[in-house]
Design goal:
Two copies of one chain form a homodimer. Chain A has helices at about 10-15, 25-40, 70-75, 120-130, 145-160, 175-190, 205-215, 240-245, 250-265, 275-285, 290-295, 305-315, and strands at about 5-10, 45-50, 85-90, 110-115, 135-140, 165-170, 195-200, 220-225. With about 325 residues, chain A is an alpha/beta fold. The longest helix of chain A is centred in the first third of the chain and has 14 residues, at about 25-40. The model of chain A has no long low-confidence stretch (mean pLDDT about 95).
């Protein structure tokens, strides 16, 4: 698959930050960026640009706020052609969290939102556009949206803002490929000015397959992370995505280097990837918070491997 | 998806046995069978029925030979409706390894073969049929077959034996869903008397997605294993497959119980599941033996996480 307009976005530090309160060491982020810049990915999302009123800086690492000065230190001395993105949560960030583009190394502001917060999202996206950035709106928890509300939100986005992409975000990893088809078709019915993007989670081991499906259906912005690092079961692995995309500009070698040197050591500290608790939350189309709690238990906790107990607790039996 | 003629086969002990020389403790196998019998799966493959001339019984566990007496002890005292299968490798088993059906608890003999050994496979399948068993032929390493040889083999199977299913086996986990479509169509062109089956490996995290694709394309025999236990990156996880299939006869609870009590403890002894070494072998469409070697290294071995070195060794850079 080689389509010039197809853009690959890495969000390792941003989505991975959900597993460690965005506490990645600075040198690790710089090394990740160096390798990603060499890999040919089109955009690197370096973290959240959320509000310190919503997240205590004593508790959260700097990549929850990803200030311009920190990004400048990351990119210093590194040749890169990719765009640099940060994410703002519609309900956890404010317009004032973003300064003017002239002083910022940020190119793209990705605004993540639930359908219910679409007005806030449009406001933040327009704030970014007015300040000189490019912007996207990423609709989270797509599998929990009510059809009419989703359609209204898409219509509003189409009419009220000039983002360059609108994302389908399968936060709960519950979509099958036929669902991906369904949502892309729905998005295309309303979204005429912007590209469609997809961001998948791997609760049912379908993140990569669903991303391929979205590419086949002409989604042109696709998210991946190094070795799938991300919340819960993780994301679409960037190394797999590059294997599928035949664009000669991509180079798998720096991706493998980054996984070897920066990502594998994290396995000693945090767990992400497929598991039965995540599978159950994906199958049941629910937030993985209970699965995350189970994974945080000590190995000798009787609840840790009591999958039937978890299934019961989640209300299925 | 609910299609009465769709049959789910569990091959946890058989394929998982490739990771520990088939050394599962007897009680573990009995417990796995008890739970699978309660789960509603249609067939349970309890091991290989290969030859002691090809595998040294001092080195390999009893599930490499899976003799009738061992199976009788497994099923003793357990109510079950599923069929019981064993696998014979076309090049590692002999007709004499199979006794008459009258004395055997085995229902189905699955003959695994490379295209080159199809004559041996047909011979073993017909031996099973003549002795009163049902039989399948499972074509391994499908992604390495030469078209003309595959077509000839399929034609031969259609003409020379009466197996009830012919399997596509993606041994190297290198197929994309479009490849699954391609092979199913090719199989259907030649195989008119038998059902089509699919057995996937997870090198590219596509085992489940490709199994779904095969189901959609009317493959009626699908293989899964508990928590994906199987060689290398493992197989299609049975617990995911049951989530997709809406047949009310399936019960996920005993599957979860079996994973909790019998499979998770194995994680301390053997590693299976997605990894970069397996991903590379899937992407490159090669046998996972080099990836298996890498995984067997100690954690402090410099080769263990040298993924670029591995990629170079595999000949891509």
């Amino acid at each position: 698959m080689y389509r010039p307009q197809l853009k690959v976005v890495d969000c390792t530090i941003r989505d991975g930050g959900l597993m460690n309160d965005s506490h990645f060491p600075f040198d690790m982020v710089k090394n990740v960026f160096r390798h990603l810049a060499a890999s040919g990915v089109d955009m690197v999302e370096l973290g959240y640009r959320n509000s310190k009123k919503m997240f205590d800086p004593k508790k959260y690492g700097i990549w929850r706020f990803t200030e311009d000065d920190d990004i400048k230190r990351v990119i210093e001395g590194i040749d890169y052609n990719c765009e640099i993105a940060v994410m703002q949560d519609a309900h956890k960030a404010f317009a004032a969290d973003l300064g003017p583009k002239e002083n910022s190394p940020v190119d793209v502001v990705r605004v993540a939102t639930y359908v219910a917060d679409v007005d806030k999202a449009i406001n933040l996206a327009n704030n970014a556009l007015e300040k000189g950035y490019r912007a996207t709106i990423n609709i989270m928890a797509i599998s929990h949206t009510i059809e009419r509300e989703l359609e209204e939100a898409l219509q509003q986005i189409e009419e009220e803002t000039n983002v360059f992409a609108v994302y389908i975000v399968d936060s709960f990893g519950s979509l099958y490929s036929e669902d991906v088809d369904y949502y892309i078709e729905k998005f295309k019915k309303y979204i005429k000015k912007s590209e469609i993007g997809i961001h998948c989670h791997n609760q049912q081991q379908l993140a990569y397959a669903n991303t391929i499906e979205a590419i086949i259906k002409n989604a042109n912005y696709v998210d991946g992370t190094l070795y799938g690092l991300g919340r819960g079961a993780g994301n679409c692995p960037l190394e797999l995505l590059m294997g599928f995309l035949k664009n000669p500009k991509f180079n798998l070698v720096p991706v493998l280097e980054a996984i070897s040197s920066e990502i594998m050591p994290l396995e000693k500290e945090i767990f992400w990837g497929y598991s039965v608790p995540y599978m159950l939350s994906g199958k049941l189309n629910i937030h993985p918070k209970e699965a995350l709690r189970i994974h945080a238990l000590e190995d000798d906790d009787p609840d840790k491997y009591d999958y039937v107990g978890l299934y019961r607790k989640l209300g299925e039996i």
